[in-house]
Please model this.
Amino acid sequence: MQQELCAADPALARRAAALVVEGGPPDTLILDSWARCAAAGLQAGAAVQVPVVDGGELARRRERAGGVRRLALAQMEALVPQIAGSNFLLAFADADGVILDLRTDSRFCMDDGDGIVTGSRWREADAGTNGLGTALASGQAVAVTGGEHFFERLGRISCTAAPVHDVDGSLAGVLDASSYVAARQRHTLALVRIAAVQMENALLRQRMRGRWVVALATRPEFLGTASEGLLAFDDAGRLLAANARAAQLLHGAAAAGTACEALLGERWEALVSRWRQDGAAPLRAAGGLALHAAAVARPPQALPRASRPAAVTAAPGVVADDPAVAEAFRLVEAAVRITAPILIQGETGCGKELLARHAHVASGRRGHFVAVNCGALPEGLLEAELFGHVGGAYTGARREGSVGLVASADGGTLLLDEIGELPLAQQAALLRFLDDGLVRPVGGTASRRVDVQLLAATHVPLAEAAAARRFRPDLLYRLDTVRVELPPLRRREDFCAAVRSVLATLDGASRIDDEAVARLARHDWPGNFRELRSLLTRALLRRGGGRLGLADVEPLLPPLAPAAGSALQQQASERVRRVFERCGNVSRTARELGISRTTVYRHLRAPLAR
Ligand SMILES: Nc1ncnc2c1ncn2[C@@H]1O[C@H](COP(=O)(O)OP(=O)(O)OP(=O)(O)O)[C@@H](O)[C@H]1O
Model:
């Protein structure tokens, strides 16, 4: 085939000859790709014409890629420190080869029009043999080095790319790391391949939410790593999906619909009851291979009957009428059914802990709710506080030792508040725990399996902390399974209801005028609910109870700067308009916001912000 190709294209013939001199003829993956390019009518010596989609199309493609793209971004973050300094570029492209996202080393510059930009499309039919296009066309991880590119112009680059498959086997995208040939590193292909496998595994877990997902490995210590096999089963133990590693471990027997017993050599009910008691179960697969299997996710029905969550409503006094807040409550209720880690982001005092407590109630877990403020524990003792210690493990340690905060939440819920403050060393220990569910006390050798619903809360965006190397991207990726954003009070549509609810918890007999509420809505509440509660308490004390009016709250608020005042006024009007657009009627808007219809009309008439 090589001769035929080279006879038809002199530029390709030169390249093939040079490759033989450099280190051997191109392998079949590359030759097959050259054949596809030649069949598509490409000429190796011609200029590379890489098409670029416009901004609107790029935005639509990003939107379509949704969850897969988020997984890719997390993997790219994790890859950056591993190949930093090697003059590289990382790209994630969709199944058409259109680059959706790029991360580049500051020293990597394609300054002469090679065109590796977001929106550029790297299908073989356009760009010839190249990492992204050839991984997509072949469905395999591939390294395309220098002269192996079909077009001569791309001969300076080395690309390593791995396709990412969805659970149904379709292509979900492709990850690529490229560098100049001289700067390439031998381990890059392995890193990219692992990142792609991790994306595939995360996709499988996402798609199979609410199902049994079982991890398989030849040794227990491989469970929780990128080399684990994953199988998803329905309630009756029939196979729904398998990742590539599981298919390999089961010697190709992993066809959808196959009964668990035929695959894992044991009755489904027996395995389920073993998984309920302990994480991993050794077994002998149908092919005779000794394997370890652990359930890593289970359906809500699989919870013991007594702990199955009833229909959940927010606790009395909790205001959750704002659509974003209501959605946050719904999301945590769904996440706890499959014990997925939850990351709550929001400003101080906006209700992160309250939402975490709601998650605990919704989960029906019988263990304790344990909240840990990661920023408040002394750094030297943090690991022992979290994971416990054996007696006398360090100077000042309790003689009888301690189980630690993580183990004290066993069977319950653990909230790691201000997770962004967790020092790097403890981040590594936490990641280990998330990977294997084992708690290892400081100074001890024995470990203990602990089952917790994990929530982490932060007021700083963790992606920024990860970019600044203060937070491990791999930990971020694990915690960020379900992310919930709680809006600050000043942006909540249920602001008026929040004021009235907090007031009712302070003094059930007191009331507040619309005018006073409108004035409160013009403050920006950096302390959110905590600040609101404190201000209303002071107002009630000043007045001695009864009905709060504008004169009672005005002196307690910072004066409105004229510009800020009008900005906040506009904010309030926008909030009313948003609710009005949703309800479509003034009376309902007034009821929902807890203000009079006249006030609604006034806001609707206010000039629109530019
Ligand atoms: N939706 C709500 N309805 C009523 N009260 C609320 C609501 N959200 C929060 N609060 C009250 O506000 C106070 C602060 O809430 P919480 O401790 O959950 O905030 P947080 O975001 O965890 O704060 P921090 O970031 O400072 O830890 C609590 O007293 C809580 O009861």
About this structure: The chain has 24 helices and 19 strands. Residues 317-320, 346, 348-354, 417, 457, 459, 501, 529-530 surround adenosine-5'-triphosphate (CB under 6 Å).
